[in-house]
Design brief:
Order of helices and strands: HHHHHHH
Organism: Roseinatronobacter alkalisoli
Protein name: Yip1 family protein
InterPro entries: Yip1_dom (IPR006977)
Subcellular location: Membrane
Strand content: under 5%
Number of strands: 0
Oligomer: single chain
Number of helices: 7
Radius of gyration: 18 Å
Membrane topology: Multi-pass membrane protein
Structural class: mainly alpha
Length: 209
Amino acid sequence: MATGRPDDGKHEGTPVMQLNIAAVSALVRLTLTRPREAAARLIALDVPDDARWLGFVIVVVLSVFLGQVSVLLMEDGEAMMGGGLLFMAMFQTSVLLGMVVAVQGVGRALGGKGSFPDTLLLLAWLQFVMLVLQFVQIAALILIPPLFGMITLLALAVFLWLLTNFVLVLHGFTSGLKVFVGIIFSFFGVAMALAFLLVLLGFGPEGAM
């Protein structure tokens, strides 16, 4: 199934990606090796807006599911039920949407050219790639537990590296260092704002039990 828009030839010549395992795997590899090229290719696909939001919802659901699996695999871990799962779903949605708003808003304020739909697409894809790495973490937790911490740190470094390169392409910036510093400051700002909002809504850890 193609992801391009069939707009009476309006987007004739726009790259079209087939949604199959081979194509997705190839794009994951490209993202991990040449993230700027992967970001440019994703933007060029001109994915319909409803497909972008569907992708956003799918990665949130997968994030909650893999998070639950990780909890169950931890020593003395217990499955989250009811309010706990709702809290995790709300938290994952808030974090990812907050990142989209921050990356698009702060980038535009600093002279960037990225649009909200493209930001949504790139960050949803970035989260999907991170879920692949989370699956590796889970495998390590099962097979080689001592490597779990090291892989977690590596995943964090990969996330920051990919996000920096995605922002460079999205907004047309040229300084990776400035983008990286901006990401760090924005991350802390968004985290504090989301934590405050969730507490106000009654979704604090104690209330989620």
